[in-house]
């Protein structure tokens, strides 16, 4: 995890490491010096209700997007009902699961809720991990491992007696999204949920009883796989069957940006991550700017008619990184946003006694806190009518650059495009005329989002930490007929990966795009 200042938009993938729910001590570890009981204490009804009331109060005072997609009446009703329904003591992880539902309901991809890191560290030490990677393909859980145990491409029907449908649905609450879209929930419920997430949801296991159908078979088979260590699981994930395709979209394994010609008429610009520089004064920013200039100069010089820009799985990053490519694609000036606000006076941090900081790993000291307030005061200088508006100098106009790309643009997006990357896709959809968007609706919003500066608060009884970004941004995104409110960037052609292409280790969305180019 890294600190995101006002110029940054938090990547969705930070959320994925910190998930929660009820844990049952099913393993054989009875050592009270290192037991789940140490990290999953019981909370009284009074303690839980107090934490929930504090959570609601903090959000009302500091979270500018709290009532963005749900009315005050709706959210207050949910909190009040939840508080009234607490009738008995709950473990920290049981309460944590309740909090996940609350933060998910709000509708912000930048929200996440974090249990005590000692709990995560304990789980990571256990030999209780599901051994192989799994992959979501059109509503199915597909086995993505390469082993003699289960054939790659097999459909998983149940694990430890729980059906595939119930397994997937049980993980939806862990994945927040801007507004009401659900695309990332679908795939993440498989692709990102069978590591530590599974342990948090279903407890510690020594083995996994798997029912499955082999490829092209309706016969139900059963296999018992022993649990493995986290290190063993990670080794198996590296050897996943889909790696020739999925590794190419992994921002941790690929360069943040790259370009190549697929053929004489089509170029491919990969933008895997917009966090390659923290801002325009970062030494890494200028090489990126020069790279883009050389790409678009070359496209213009060679009169290349087609350009594919691939931002799939891009988790976000900073501005002005994501605005730079747009400047070569449009003949109109644009801004990052038309309005950005916070709802408190930067001099008076709400509920400062519960404030933790901006990093989960360490509490912010008084000196850093003072500097943070001074920074916010510079960016949001005037607090009036319960709102502080962004200083205009932090929202510059971006003007078109030459040479403008004059050919056909194809933008590849998917459900993992978040934060600054979805903001980039929003600008492309808003300001580029000759664009065709292929893929899956992004998890980040088209019209607005809460982003930039994250704040972390720790609740006093459960010690659970909650994070949200405090800046409500109305993006520079004109109204579009095919772009409903409260949704991510909608593609012109919705294309999900297919099982046939999985077996052939082909990239479904790229293959579709190349065929689309040929038909033009």
Strand content: 15-25%
DSSP, total strands: 25
State the major sheet: 7 strands, antiparallel
Reading off the top of the CATH hierarchy, the class of the domain at 257-329 and 405-447 and 483-519 is best stated as: Alpha Beta
DSSP summary: helix tally? 15
Helix percentage: 25-40%
Radius of gyration: 24 Å
Low-confidence stretches: 1-32
Overall 3D form: globular
Instruction: Give the overall average pLDDT.
Output: 92
Please tell me the CATH architecture of the domain at 257-329 and 405-447 and 483-519 by its name: Alpha-Beta Complex
CATH superfamily of the domain at 257-329 and 405-447 and 483-519: 2-enoyl-CoA Hydratase, Chain A, domain 1
Structural account:
- Residues 292-494 form the Tail specific protease domain.
- GO terms for molecular function: serine-type peptidase activity.
- InterPro entries: ClpP/crotonase-like_dom_sf, Tail-specific_protease.
- The chain contains 15 helices and 25 strands.
- Among the domains are: 124-240, Pdz3 Domain (Roll); 257-329 and 405-447 and 483-519, 2-enoyl-CoA Hydratase, Chain A, domain 1 (Alpha-Beta Complex).
- Strands 4, 16, 17, 18, 19, 23 and 24 form a seven-stranded antiparallel β-sheet that branches. Strands 5, 6, 7, 8, 9 and 10 form a six-stranded antiparallel β-sheet that branches.
- The protein is globular, with a radius of gyration of 24 Å.
- It has helices at residues 36-39, 45-62, 72-84, 92-106, 117-124, 164-171, 183-191, 196-202, 230-238, 243-246, 285-301, 366-379, 419-431, 499-504, 508-519; strands at residues 8-9, 42-43, 90-91, 112-114, 134-137, 140-143, 155-159, 162-163, 207-213, 220-226, 257-263, 266-271, 306-310, 317-318, 334-335, 337-342, 355-357, 383-384, 387-389, 397-398, 408-413, 435-439, 448-458, 465-475, 493-494.
- A hairpin with a 2-residue loop joins strand 18 (383-384) and strand 19 (387-389).
- It is an alpha+beta fold and 520 residues long.
- Helix 2 runs antiparallel to helix 3.
- Helix content is 30%, strand content 21%.
